[in-house]
């Protein structure tokens, strides 16, 4: 792909949503579309539907922000961005099946259209294609980063799946799950960008730490959206974590604040049944409001974001540090998108 039109000025790496990100993402969408043409039919059409159907493209943006400033590697940045986005979309295809989600990005999920069997195979094909593309780099480093992150992502999802319905899960357990299932791909995105830009191993390690921390924050935010967001705003099914038995931050903090007798009562309400009764939903919802769980979750996330901000501030290169700090500013806006209604959406009656 010719990149002569790409904005070559230093201003091309300005804040999120400005000229640099927009220019890069415009090229990225074209590059990603062209890359999918290499797939065989009928996988190609299905892949185009799920891969090009929208998305925040956070991982490509992290690649760009950690690797920009070196115009000669821009095409490599686009390629590794496509690889990581393919892995991410593959995980979404599989996650939607596991969560029995019906909506993704305001559209019907692919498994509801082509069946779970075919959707699983589509996800597998996207994983395989991503790793195939990763082998095309002259160094094995990219392939190692991507394959390791893919493995850890699957490990995190398996660990969390095994823990469904286990209300003894601790914050430490929860962090371990989400660091693997989300943080590892964020880490790989940052490290791949820094590696392609020729940064030292020390810097690659530092941005990897930033990626892990950011991934942790992002998954916490996503879990809060699942509990307290508005489906018509975020464009996907909400409440799937609770209904599928996943234990996330709101539930963990709730159990921490309950008395011993309340703890036993709620666990009895949640255990041993195929579906949650309206009475149980109302009871848990009332407790979440009474104990201000939503507000405590937001405070908790802001504290975690401060830690991530500190990592970005301590990076040795001012431009890279500024790029990542500007990226973090996105979360300040995102937190305001949580529903103003303190009653959890996933506990709504008559679900």
Poorly predicted ranges: 6-17, 347-351
Main beta sheet strand tally, sense and closure: 2 strands, antiparallel
Q: Averaging pLDDT over every residue, what do you get?
A: 84
Give the strand content. under 5%
CATH class: Mainly Alpha
How would you classify the helix and strand content by structural class? mainly alpha
Order of neighbouring strands in the sheet with most strands: 1-2
CATH architecture assignment: Orthogonal Bundle
User: What integer value in Å does the Rg equal?
Assistant: 21 Å
The name of the CATH topology is: Farnesyl Diphosphate Synthase
Instruction: Give the number of helices.
Output: 16
Number of strands: 2
Query: What is the total number of structural domains?
Result: 1
Overview of the molecule:
The model is unreliable at 6-17 and 347-351 (pLDDT under 50). Helix 3 (58-67) packs antiparallel against helix 4. With 351 residues, the protein is mainly alpha-helical. The longest helix has 28 residues, at 201-228. Strand 1 (103-104) and strand 2 (107-108) form a beta hairpin. The chain has a two-stranded antiparallel ribbon with strand order 1-2. It is globular. Helices cover 69% and strands 1% of the residues.
